[in-house]
Amino acid sequence: MTTRTVDATQELAAFLRTRRERLDPRDFNLPARHQARRTPGLRREEVAELAGVSIDYIVRLEQARGLRPSAHVVEALSRALRLAPDERAYLFNLAQQRPRNADKPATTAAPPLARLVADLSPLPAMLMNHRYDILAWNEEMARLLLDFDSLPPSQRNAMWLCLVHPEIREFYVDRERVVREGIAHLRAAWAAHPEDQALTDLITECTTHSEEFARLWAERDIKVNGRGHKVMRHPGAGVIAVHFEVLMPLQDPDQRLMICRAADDESQLALDRLHAR
Protein backbone atom coordinates (compact mmCIF):
# COMPACT_ATOMS: atom_id res chain seq x y z
CA MET A 1 0.00 0.00 0.00
CA THR A 2 1.31 3.47 -0.88
CA THR A 3 0.22 6.76 0.67
CA ARG A 4 -0.22 9.60 -1.79
CA THR A 5 -0.56 13.29 -1.06
CA VAL A 6 -2.84 13.83 1.92
CA ASP A 7 -6.49 14.45 1.08
CA ALA A 8 -7.20 16.52 4.18
CA THR A 9 -10.98 16.27 3.88
CA GLN A 10 -10.98 12.48 3.60
CA GLU A 11 -8.38 12.07 6.35
CA LEU A 12 -10.29 14.42 8.66
CA ALA A 13 -13.41 12.33 8.16
CA ALA A 14 -11.62 9.05 8.80
CA PHE A 15 -9.77 10.42 11.82
CA LEU A 16 -12.96 11.68 13.46
CA ARG A 17 -14.67 8.32 12.90
CA THR A 18 -11.82 6.29 14.36
CA ARG A 19 -11.43 8.57 17.38
CA ARG A 20 -15.19 8.43 18.04
CA GLU A 21 -15.33 4.65 17.72
CA ARG A 22 -12.52 4.01 20.19
CA LEU A 23 -14.27 5.81 23.06
CA ASP A 24 -16.08 3.94 25.81
CA PRO A 25 -19.58 5.39 26.41
CA ARG A 26 -19.36 4.37 30.07
CA ASP A 27 -16.65 7.01 30.58
CA PHE A 28 -19.00 9.86 29.69
CA ASN A 29 -21.98 9.42 32.06
CA LEU A 30 -24.33 9.58 29.09
CA PRO A 31 -28.06 8.86 29.46
CA ALA A 32 -28.91 5.18 29.16
CA ARG A 33 -30.23 4.09 25.75
CA HIS A 34 -32.69 1.25 25.29
CA GLN A 35 -31.48 0.17 21.88
CA ALA A 36 -28.31 -1.86 21.63
CA ARG A 37 -25.23 -0.25 20.13
CA ARG A 38 -24.46 -1.62 16.71
CA THR A 39 -20.99 -0.07 16.49
CA PRO A 40 -18.29 0.53 19.10
CA GLY A 41 -17.69 3.89 20.68
CA LEU A 42 -19.91 6.96 20.88
CA ARG A 43 -22.79 7.68 18.55
CA ARG A 44 -22.58 10.70 16.28
CA GLU A 45 -25.38 12.42 18.16
CA GLU A 46 -23.46 11.96 21.41
CA VAL A 47 -20.34 13.56 19.97
CA ALA A 48 -22.49 16.37 18.60
CA GLU A 49 -23.98 16.99 22.02
CA LEU A 50 -20.58 16.95 23.73
CA ALA A 51 -19.10 19.32 21.16
CA GLY A 52 -22.08 21.64 20.98
CA VAL A 53 -22.71 21.22 17.25
CA SER A 54 -25.55 19.68 15.23
CA ILE A 55 -25.76 15.99 14.40
CA ASP A 56 -25.92 16.92 10.71
CA TYR A 57 -22.63 18.76 11.04
CA ILE A 58 -20.91 15.65 12.48
CA VAL A 59 -22.42 13.49 9.72
CA ARG A 60 -21.17 15.84 7.01
CA LEU A 61 -17.69 15.96 8.55
CA GLU A 62 -17.47 12.17 8.76
CA GLN A 63 -18.70 11.82 5.20
CA ALA A 64 -16.04 14.23 3.90
CA ARG A 65 -18.61 16.55 2.42
CA GLY A 66 -16.33 19.56 2.06
CA LEU A 67 -16.69 21.25 5.43
CA ARG A 68 -13.76 23.13 6.96
CA PRO A 69 -14.45 23.46 10.68
CA SER A 70 -13.42 26.64 12.46
CA ALA A 71 -10.73 26.64 15.15
CA HIS A 72 -13.51 26.92 17.75
CA VAL A 73 -15.24 23.80 16.43
CA VAL A 74 -11.96 21.88 16.17
CA GLU A 75 -11.22 22.71 19.80
CA ALA A 76 -14.70 21.56 20.82
CA LEU A 77 -14.27 18.29 18.90
CA SER A 78 -10.86 17.76 20.49
CA ARG A 79 -12.40 18.02 23.95
CA ALA A 80 -15.42 15.88 23.07
CA LEU A 81 -13.23 13.12 21.63
CA ARG A 82 -10.68 13.46 24.46
CA LEU A 83 -7.78 13.77 22.07
CA ALA A 84 -4.22 13.59 23.31
CA PRO A 85 -2.06 16.69 22.61
CA ASP A 86 -0.46 15.13 19.51
CA GLU A 87 -3.87 14.07 18.19
CA ARG A 88 -5.26 17.55 18.86
CA ALA A 89 -2.43 19.12 16.85
CA TYR A 90 -3.07 16.63 14.03
CA LEU A 91 -6.76 17.52 13.91
CA PHE A 92 -5.94 21.24 13.77
CA ASN A 93 -3.51 20.59 10.92
CA LEU A 94 -6.09 18.60 8.96
CA ALA A 95 -8.62 21.41 9.42
CA GLN A 96 -5.95 23.94 8.37
CA GLN A 97 -6.48 25.89 11.54
CA ARG A 98 -4.02 27.19 14.07
CA PRO A 99 -4.52 25.84 17.59
CA ARG A 100 -4.34 28.07 20.62
CA ASN A 101 -1.83 27.01 23.20
CA ALA A 102 -3.67 24.48 25.35
CA ASP A 103 -1.01 24.18 28.02
CA LYS A 104 -0.03 26.74 30.63
CA PRO A 105 3.32 28.40 29.96
CA ALA A 106 6.24 26.62 31.55
CA THR A 107 7.36 28.18 34.83
CA THR A 108 9.74 25.40 35.91
CA ALA A 109 12.24 23.36 33.94
CA ALA A 110 11.23 19.88 32.87
CA PRO A 111 13.58 17.60 34.90
CA PRO A 112 15.07 15.81 31.85
CA LEU A 113 15.84 19.18 30.27
CA ALA A 114 17.39 20.52 33.47
CA ARG A 115 19.68 17.47 33.51
CA LEU A 116 20.53 18.04 29.85
CA VAL A 117 21.51 21.65 30.58
CA ALA A 118 23.96 20.40 33.23
CA ASP A 119 25.26 17.65 30.95
CA LEU A 120 26.09 20.15 28.19
CA SER A 121 28.99 21.49 30.27
CA PRO A 122 31.48 22.91 29.35
CA LEU A 123 29.27 24.60 26.78
CA PRO A 124 27.28 27.45 28.39
CA ALA A 125 23.60 26.48 28.27
CA MET A 126 20.31 27.59 29.77
CA LEU A 127 16.61 26.84 29.50
CA MET A 128 13.95 29.53 28.98
CA ASN A 129 10.26 29.72 28.19
CA HIS A 130 8.66 31.79 25.43
CA ARG A 131 8.70 34.98 27.51
CA TYR A 132 12.45 34.71 28.28
CA ASP A 133 12.02 33.51 31.87
CA ILE A 134 15.22 31.65 32.77
CA LEU A 135 14.25 28.23 34.13
CA ALA A 136 17.58 26.39 34.37
CA TRP A 137 21.26 27.03 33.64
CA ASN A 138 24.64 25.40 34.07
CA GLU A 139 27.68 26.81 35.85
CA GLU A 140 29.29 27.88 32.58
CA MET A 141 26.30 30.06 31.67
CA ALA A 142 26.26 31.57 35.15
CA ARG A 143 29.97 32.42 34.87
CA LEU A 144 29.49 33.86 31.39
CA LEU A 145 26.43 36.00 32.16
CA LEU A 146 25.38 36.31 35.79
CA ASP A 147 24.94 34.37 39.02
CA PHE A 148 21.22 33.71 38.53
CA ASP A 149 21.00 32.13 42.00
CA SER A 150 21.61 35.58 43.47
CA LEU A 151 18.44 36.93 41.85
CA PRO A 152 14.85 36.44 43.03
CA PRO A 153 12.88 34.27 40.58
CA SER A 154 10.82 37.28 39.46
CA GLN A 155 13.99 38.89 38.05
CA ARG A 156 15.27 35.82 36.20
CA ASN A 157 14.08 37.09 32.85
CA ALA A 158 16.55 37.71 30.04
CA MET A 159 14.71 40.75 28.67
CA TRP A 160 14.27 42.38 32.08
CA LEU A 161 17.96 41.80 32.89
CA CYS A 162 19.10 43.30 29.60
CA LEU A 163 17.00 46.41 30.19
CA VAL A 164 17.46 46.96 33.92
CA HIS A 165 20.29 45.00 35.55
CA PRO A 166 23.37 47.26 35.92
CA GLU A 167 25.84 44.52 34.89
CA ILE A 168 23.87 43.21 31.92
CA ARG A 169 22.85 46.64 30.58
CA GLU A 170 26.39 47.31 29.38
CA PHE A 171 27.33 43.69 28.78
CA TYR A 172 26.72 43.42 25.03
CA VAL A 173 29.00 45.20 22.57
CA ASP A 174 26.15 45.58 20.06
CA ARG A 175 23.48 46.34 22.64
CA GLU A 176 21.05 48.03 20.24
CA ARG A 177 20.85 44.96 17.99
CA VAL A 178 20.56 42.51 20.88
CA VAL A 179 17.71 44.44 22.50
CA ARG A 180 15.96 45.03 19.18
CA GLU A 181 16.06 41.32 18.27
CA GLY A 182 14.93 40.34 21.76
CA ILE A 183 11.92 42.63 21.56
CA ALA A 184 11.08 41.35 18.06
CA HIS A 185 11.10 37.81 19.46
CA LEU A 186 8.96 38.87 22.42
CA ARG A 187 6.37 40.44 20.10
CA ALA A 188 6.10 37.18 18.15
CA ALA A 189 5.62 35.28 21.43
CA TRP A 190 2.98 37.81 22.53
CA ALA A 191 0.91 37.15 19.38
CA ALA A 192 1.28 33.37 19.76
CA HIS A 193 0.27 33.40 23.45
CA PRO A 194 -2.56 35.94 23.81
CA GLU A 195 -3.77 34.16 26.94
CA ASP A 196 -0.48 34.61 28.83
CA GLN A 197 -1.22 37.38 31.32
CA ALA A 198 2.29 37.21 32.80
CA LEU A 199 3.76 37.98 29.38
CA THR A 200 1.36 40.90 28.91
CA ASP A 201 2.32 42.20 32.36
CA LEU A 202 6.02 41.93 31.51
CA ILE A 203 5.55 43.93 28.31
CA THR A 204 3.51 46.56 30.15
CA GLU A 205 6.17 46.89 32.84
CA CYS A 206 8.98 47.18 30.29
CA THR A 207 7.06 49.70 28.19
CA THR A 208 6.29 51.81 31.26
CA HIS A 209 9.78 51.84 32.77
CA SER A 210 12.05 51.71 29.72
CA GLU A 211 11.95 54.36 26.99
CA GLU A 212 14.25 52.13 24.94
CA PHE A 213 11.81 49.21 25.10
CA ALA A 214 8.79 51.43 24.37
CA ARG A 215 10.50 52.93 21.31
CA LEU A 216 11.52 49.58 19.84
CA TRP A 217 8.24 47.84 20.74
CA ALA A 218 6.35 50.51 18.78
CA GLU A 219 8.31 49.64 15.62
CA ARG A 220 6.56 46.23 15.54
CA ASP A 221 9.55 44.28 14.28
CA ILE A 222 9.06 40.50 14.28
CA LYS A 223 11.91 38.00 14.47
CA VAL A 224 12.17 34.59 16.12
CA ASN A 225 15.70 34.21 17.42
CA GLY A 226 16.66 30.60 16.84
CA ARG A 227 20.29 31.20 15.95
CA GLY A 228 22.67 34.11 16.16
CA HIS A 229 25.88 35.78 17.27
CA LYS A 230 26.66 37.94 20.30
CA VAL A 231 29.77 39.73 21.49
CA MET A 232 30.08 40.33 25.23
CA ARG A 233 32.36 42.39 27.48
CA HIS A 234 33.02 40.04 30.37
CA PRO A 235 34.40 41.85 33.44
CA GLY A 236 36.83 39.02 34.22
CA ALA A 237 37.60 37.44 30.86
CA GLY A 238 37.47 40.33 28.39
CA VAL A 239 35.64 40.32 25.07
CA ILE A 240 33.94 37.01 24.26
CA ALA A 241 32.14 36.31 20.98
CA VAL A 242 29.71 33.39 20.88
CA HIS A 243 27.40 31.71 18.43
CA PHE A 244 24.14 30.57 20.00
CA GLU A 245 21.56 28.00 18.97
CA VAL A 246 18.03 27.74 20.41
CA LEU A 247 16.31 24.34 20.31
CA MET A 248 12.67 23.48 21.14
CA PRO A 249 12.06 19.98 22.57
CA LEU A 250 9.14 18.11 21.03
CA GLN A 251 7.79 16.99 24.41
CA ASP A 252 8.07 20.46 26.00
CA PRO A 253 7.59 22.97 23.16
CA ASP A 254 7.25 25.95 25.51
CA GLN A 255 10.80 25.40 26.78
CA ARG A 256 13.76 26.64 24.76
CA LEU A 257 17.27 25.31 25.15
CA MET A 258 19.98 27.89 24.38
CA ILE A 259 23.50 26.58 23.77
CA CYS A 260 26.50 28.85 23.27
CA ARG A 261 29.87 28.08 21.74
CA ALA A 262 32.92 30.24 21.10
CA ALA A 263 32.96 32.09 17.79
CA ASP A 264 36.78 32.27 17.57
CA ASP A 265 39.95 30.96 19.21
CA GLU A 266 40.39 33.92 21.56
CA SER A 267 36.82 33.55 22.80
CA GLN A 268 37.38 29.82 23.35
CA LEU A 269 40.42 30.58 25.48
CA ALA A 270 38.34 33.05 27.51
CA LEU A 271 35.59 30.45 28.03
CA ASP A 272 38.23 27.90 29.07
CA ARG A 273 39.52 30.33 31.69
CA LEU A 274 36.00 30.82 33.05
CA HIS A 275 35.45 27.06 33.13
CA ALA A 276 38.71 26.51 35.04
CA ARG A 277 37.77 28.90 37.84
Q: Provide the spatial order of strands within the biggest beta sheet.
A: 2-1-5-4-3
The number of domains is 2
Low-confidence stretches: none
Number of H- or I-type helical stretches:
13
What does the main sheet amount to? 5 strands, antiparallel
The average pLDDT is 89
Characteristic terms for this protein:
277 residues; alpha+beta; 434 Repressor (Amino-terminal Domain); Beta-Lactamase; 2 domains; 45% helix; elongated
Mind sketching the topology for me?
Layout: H1 8-21, H2 44-51, H3 55-62, H4 71-80, H5 85-94, H6 111-119, E1 125-129, E2 134-137, H7 139-144, H8 158-164, H9 166-169, H10 175-192, H11 197-209, H12 211-217, E3 227-234, E4 238-247, E5 255-262, H13 265-276
Antiparallel strand pairs: 1-2, 1-5, 3-4, 4-5
Helix pairs in contact: 2-3, 2-4, 4-5, 11-12
Q: What's the quick description here?
A:
The protein is α+β, with helices and mostly antiparallel strands and 277 residues long. The protein contains 13 helices and 5 strands.
Word description of this protein:
By secondary structure, the chain is of the alpha+beta class. It folds into two domains: 87 residues, 434 Repressor (Amino-terminal Domain) (Orthogonal Bundle); 166 residues, Beta-Lactamase (2-Layer Sandwich). It has 13 helices and five strands. The chain has a five-stranded antiparallel beta sheet with strand order 2-1-5-4-3. Helix 2 crosses helix 4, helix 4 runs antiparallel to helix 5 and helix 11 crosses helix 12.
